[in-house]
Amino acid sequence: MINSITITNLNGNVIFSKYYNTTIEEKQLEFEKSLYQLTKDEWIYAKSERHLVADIGGSIVVYTNIGDLMIFLVGSSDVYDELSLSDVMHPISECIKDVCKKKGVTELYLIEQIPKFVLYLDEVIQRGHLDQIQFESISNYSLLKHDKKETV
Amino acid sequence: MSDHHHHSNGSGLSDKDLFETRCLSQYLQSKIPTNYDSLKQSLRDATDKKNSSKIQTSLQNLTYYKVEKDILDTLLSIISMTDDKKILKLAYYFLVEISAYRTQINNSAEIKNMITIFTKEMNHKDISRKVVSLKTTAMLAPNDSLVDSNIMEVISGILRKVGEDPDKVQKKKGFFSKVSDLGRERALLQYACFVACRNRFKNNPSLFMPIVEGIKCTDQVGARHAVQLTLDYAKENVSTVAATIKRFLPLLKANKGKEAVALIDPFARRSFIALCGLIAKQSSPADSKDFFQNICQSVMDSHTAVWCCAINTLCKFPWKTLESGTIEPISTTDNDTPSYYDPIGNVTPLLVGISNRIKTGFAVHISSHATQQSVPFTHMACKLINSLSQSYVKHQYPKDAAQNPQVGVWTELEKSDPKMPVHPFAGLTAAVTSLLQISPNISIRVQALRALVWLCPSSLCPAARAFFDIFKAQLYEPGHPILLFRELFGELYKRIVETPILSPFLLQLVYDWIDIVPHKVDTSLVRQIWETILNFGLEGRERVLQNCFSVMDRSIHPDFRVVSLEILKDIVFFLGDYANVITYENQNNSTTLAVTDNQALNSIILRLEQYAIFHPWQIRMTAIDALAKIAFLSSSAVRIHIYHFLTTSPNDSHGWTSVKSNNSTIINIIDQLLTLRSKWLPLLKTINPTQKKELINDHNSLTLQIGMFFDSPPTDYYPIGIETKQLVI
């Protein structure tokens, strides 16, 4: 399953995090700390939305940089390997860019847009299961417009 | 936790607020002006007043928080009274969030309310409301027979028609304006059913057929969920699933033009490969053949994540199976071929196909420009090369009579043996090695090194030497963290377990590791490597001892003095534990054998005695302990020698006092060992019951005292002598 998604600013402050597994809060903070420590030196290579990979405590992490944000997607490696997490990262990046399209992807603007972002995310991952991956579906379904014709 | 658990500390903030926040992060809370409790209250007020805009604002503001079960009531009221889609979606979003507390929902009024709303929503004309209600209720509603039967009835109703062609039912009244949309509406409902089943009715026998048929669902995400559900069924009953889904296998001749499925969604294809893998592994050869072949064909999938998944699944099969596998020709001009396959003209050996696929992938994704490299791909590819090569090396390496890997002859060769089989993935070595130069990413380097460990030939030939030179070069990279070396040496450790022949190269590399970057050494891993090589016969023991001595006797750069002392301490400790194993010395050796006859043991004792006198006190302590352990496990001659050393060693140097106290305990135990042995040995043949009792007491007392010096007590150990074995058991 997909274990968690975490969004931080470039100083490593957590702006958004969501855990789909049953990790207790204390462990979550611990995990976020090691996530930061083990990847921080390589954040510069994640520029221009390049996807990087890290193995942390039996989980696999794909992370990238968009605007002044870092996005981390964590999966249990038996089902979600680095390539599939990278494939899941694409629609999530699109969602972030879409909710921030008016003012650009900045920390403050994403914070403002979180109510919209969580609804998008709810269409992509539910309870750790991957759901929609086409941005058009994500966007329509999050507005409860399932009947809207998709452009194929 | 509900409000009444909060205790006010007098400042208006509860204790709980001071230490934790319900916000998604503490940092986020510092950036927003709201707080959870007041938002919850305003949501309740707005709901009571049916004030839509305030409901929406409160719900939006609540998305910054982790909500609790106590807003369930309010959310259900909102859903039953609003038609505003934005509000509805938010309310459903929170219901999914609350579903984490589903087991705590036990209020019968709440459950009843849930069912009423569910029934109402499922009869609503809006397809979105049906989809979202079905998905959410299945997640949220507690385990309750009434709820189950309600949801099940709806799901059965929808899925009953799952295999039908949508065109055949177009005449039925649809909810969409256009008749052609009917198929899509049904597919969406089916999709909602599959999501609901994943969260509520996994492996339900009555839904088996419609779910398996769901693999053909025209909603691609729905089809993916159906494949995943089928995989769950297969884990319980593989043969039924195999028999049912065989007709769906794409590219299988018998299925062409019939029910072969084309899964457009790459994640669905990955799950389908996992399903085929499970069936192929667990079924009879006849049943598994077509499923295995489907995985082989998936190596030609055009989506990188899918073909990598296929190779990854193949890694779980024995090397022999892979060696005889083939990829059958795929023609993309054939109308029956799904569009997601790359063409392949001839029957290709599976291993060649895999190697070519990875090689082509590297050609696309490895570039000297860091920005053009695909890190996820190269990471994955190295992992695949590692798994496949491991499988090959284990299969190919010669075994001894007991089917253990042969130790072999440890002489470095000047030339490679022309008869040595060529590693099937040798062609990928250059690309993997190049990653070490061009990728700045540590995790890529780690994976590349792990792959190289298994690409190395199983021989002490120049070609293998070249690999170890690459590994050695890594020690000089200033940016490499200890983690990288842990991974590298951990993998090399696994390698020598499978191919002991490479031990001499590894021991040389261990020396370099300690010599070049002592501050990046993991001594527990070094110890593990030594312990393993000790099992490789006389040669193994000699080489390990040599390795220890080379490390101990080398000159140390002043910068590394402190860290090198730590390493030295660990080696001294190791020698204490293993000196007797390395040198074959034990308590049962003839007492007439002089200690000087065992040269290896002699040189160990000599070094330890030096360390016990001329080094900082921590090393002295460890050296004395090590000598003690050797004495306890050795014959009387060695015991007497060490006893003599400990009783006469100088006692005037700095820090000796602390060593001295430990020393006296050890001297006392050796004293007992020697005295009791000489006391009991002449009596053993004529021992009476009272004496026997006394002997057992002595035995137990000594074993207890000596046991304190070992992490795990020595097995089959008789402190007074092996002669007492029959008497003390």
From TrEMBL, chain A:
<dbReference type="GO" id="GO:0006891">
    <property type="term" value="P:intra-Golgi vesicle-mediated transport"/>
</dbReference>
<dbReference type="Pfam" id="PF01217">
    <property type="entry name" value="Clat_adaptor_s"/>
</dbReference>
<dbReference type="GO" id="GO:0030126">
    <property type="term" value="C:COPI vesicle coat"/>
</dbReference>
<comment type="similarity">
    <text>Belongs to the adaptor complexes small subunit family.</text>
</comment>
<dbReference type="InterPro" id="IPR039652">
    <property type="entry name" value="Coatomer_zeta"/>
</dbReference>
<protein>
    <recommendedName>
        <fullName>AP complex mu/sigma subunit domain-containing protein</fullName>
    </recommendedName>
</protein>
<feature type="domain" description="AP complex mu/sigma subunit">
    <location>
        <begin position="1"/>
        <end position="138"/>
    </location>
</feature>
<dbReference type="InterPro" id="IPR022775">
    <property type="entry name" value="AP_mu_sigma_su"/>
</dbReference>
<keyword id="KW-0963">Cytoplasm</keyword>
<keyword id="KW-0472">Membrane</keyword>
<dbReference type="GO" id="GO:0006890">
    <property type="term" value="P:retrograde vesicle-mediated transport, Golgi to endoplasmic reticulum"/>
</dbReference>
<dbReference type="GO" id="GO:0006886">
    <property type="term" value="P:intracellular protein transport"/>
</dbReference>
<dbReference type="InterPro" id="IPR011012">
    <property type="entry name" value="Longin-like_dom_sf"/>
</dbReference>
From TrEMBL, chain B:
<dbReference type="InterPro" id="IPR016024">
    <property type="entry name" value="ARM-type_fold"/>
</dbReference>
<dbReference type="InterPro" id="IPR053296">
    <property type="entry name" value="TSET_member_tstB"/>
</dbReference>
<protein>
    <submittedName>
        <fullName>Uncharacterized protein</fullName>
    </submittedName>
</protein>
